[in-house]
């Protein structure tokens, strides 16, 4: 989908945020509104949202404003339904679960990250937001190449394991969500020295071990770092890269005593749940330690959506963020210039996150 359209969509949602917060305190966690020019039910209740997202296409279908759907095209994955959506979703999920593919992505991503970090100098600022986007562009090309080679190989055997729609889907505008995740992690870590120290120690320990063994890091090494994973989880909670998702009711449905009338739009507002103090103590404070004894599969934590359309790229997103963080903290110390997170019209850093780096001398 065109990124300008997303911007317009996000503008509409953010403009509505103030109304939502006002309505939430006035009417409770689920309320009616006309925020998208359509009669809508806004849910800041995680349980209600979970039930809606788990429903099948007889109850709810994806819904996005008319201007967007016209331009997204009828076959966009965000709009398709039923068996086709399940097939494509399954294929993408399986694709990213393949350990062979994860190994290849890990090798290439390490190479890209290493190469771009080699060019960093200590006498000029590094703009983290731009650097993460550049690494990401290379990853998109890599995935494209893998798919094309799979298709070429399968063509000889008669049928391709990767249909055309899947390629399109993988290259959708979501390509910026992982760079935003990496940039926000660096921002939050710059503001929280205790978390940065623990993250660095954990990653240095693994690096030393691997150096001694003379082995490169594998994808499972990256994902096995517990504190690094809590840093990514907390960044996803606070950052709210996707603030919520939309559906449309196909029939009158009652959930937890709330009636969602047929034809109405339903907006599952994740950001509100992630920043609700009844779910998280001090919700605006970056606190990765909160996840050490918390259930990540709780319905109060849904940065990747849930149910039928749970993001199939979630493992890949975590893997890429882990690789980036590992190479960054084990090679550099840095001082961040003053910058702020902007949520409007999309989540990003106001000044592109300038930092001054110094190569670490410790092994
Ligand atoms: C931080 C990174 C990411 C976040 C926060 C994120 C978030 C989400 C969310 C919330 C949804 C649900 C949309 C809905 O219910 O309407 C979704 C769906 C999807 N995501 Fe992600 N995503 C991320 C990374 C990725 C990556 C790296 C890929 C692929 C390379 C990807 C591919 C998809 C696809 C194909 C869908 C549609 C699934 C379906 O409708 O069955 N995402 N994502």
UniProtKB/TrEMBL annotation:
Query: What residues form the membrane-spanning segments?
Result: 6-23
Major localisation: membrane
As for subcellular location, the record says:
Membrane
Name the Pfam families for this protein.
Answer: p450
Q: Which InterPro entries match?
A: Cyt_P450 (IPR001128), Cyt_P450_CS (IPR017972), Cyt_P450_E_grp-I (IPR002401), Cyt_P450_sf (IPR036396)
Q: In which pathway does it act?
A: Secondary metabolite biosynthesis; terpenoid biosynthesis
Which domain of life does this protein belong to? Eukaryota
Keywords from the named record: Heme, Iron, Membrane, Metal-binding, Monooxygenase, Oxidoreductase, Transmembrane, Transmembrane helix
| Membrane topology (UniProt) | Single-pass membrane protein
What family does the Swiss-Prot or TrEMBL record give for this protein?
Belongs to the cytochrome P450 family.
The identity of this protein, by name, is 3-epi-6-deoxocathasterone 23-monooxygenase
Question: Which lineage?
Answer: Eukaryota, Viridiplantae, Streptophyta, Embryophyta, Tracheophyta
